[in-house]
Amino acid sequence: MTHQYVCDGRVRDEELFCDRIVGYLYSRIREQAPAVFKAVISGRASSLLGFLNYDLPLGARLSGAQALIRRLGIDLGECVEEAAHYDTPRRIFERRIRYAEVRPMDESPEAVVSPADSRMFAGSLSEGAVLFIKDKFFSFEEFLARRQWVEAFAGGEFAVFRLTPDKYHYNHVPVSGVVRDFYEIEGAFHSCNPSAVISEATPFSRNRRAVTVIDTDVAGGSGCGLVTMVEVAALMIGQIVQAYAEEGYEPAEPMHPGLFLCKGQPKSLYRPGSSLDVLFFQPGRVAFSADLVANQFRADVGSRFSDWLGRPWVETDVRVRQTIGRVVTSTIQD
After folding, report:
1. What is the pTM of this model?
2. b/e per residue, 46-61, with b = 16+ CB within 10 A?
3. Which of 54, 128, 222, 241 is a Cys-bridge partner for 216, taking CB atoms 3.0 to 4.6 Å apart?
4. Per-residue pLDDT averaged across 288-315, rounded?
């Protein structure tokens, strides 16, 4: 069964990495050997799988690296380092790019940008909204875990960004503002493969994740209220490294309350594999781009999410720092 998405207005088939293995794991193994399944999605197993897949050298022959780069469709011309640097899968997946040049950003204060090169869909926590979806990809209360933030974002909007293994694995800041809270939640390492997502109830709520709450209603902020960015670890992601940089990638610093984040700058890095970001917005503060919403309801796209939900639910390929929405109400302080 294929899984399709929209890229530049065209329908594309996605090459799902290890799709048969993931399908077998989430059907046969989960049902017949639950102890084995639990072990596979544990932190220890995820780190081991990551090492075996990403840290073993590709050998002295540059052709090994080049073959992997070609298969993933990576443009080394975007990268900061020279081609010879990419001699292991990990170095390839943790590549740095000249993002100011190759991922240009709309500098308008009202623009909200994508945090990652990813496949995106939007949703709403309000029952009256056309994008409303309840307790499928995550249980909202369990996902954020802290009551004050659950209450702050109740009835708001969200967007999910699924990073596939071929993507650039740095996350960037989607809005400008001050960090009000940062915390990490322990959990498992479920795969973000669509087959795994639709077979496991609210899987994102069960994975290890890092939560950053950003107040944008401050001087120099984006003016769209509170925004929460959740980075979710997945199978073979051993670590989410918080590494905010005001320029380039260095010097980098970890998240902490009081830190001002500038839109479009690097925020964190996934140690490689598949993973995803989720953004939450307060009610009525952001309007998602019309083309992204229209793509989501296309009936001519063979999305596994559509089959699962019984209605069109289609992802769009977006690039980091690309505009995904606009601020509706601005309350920026002078």
Report:
1. 0.88
2. bbebbeebbeeebeee
3. 222
4. 96
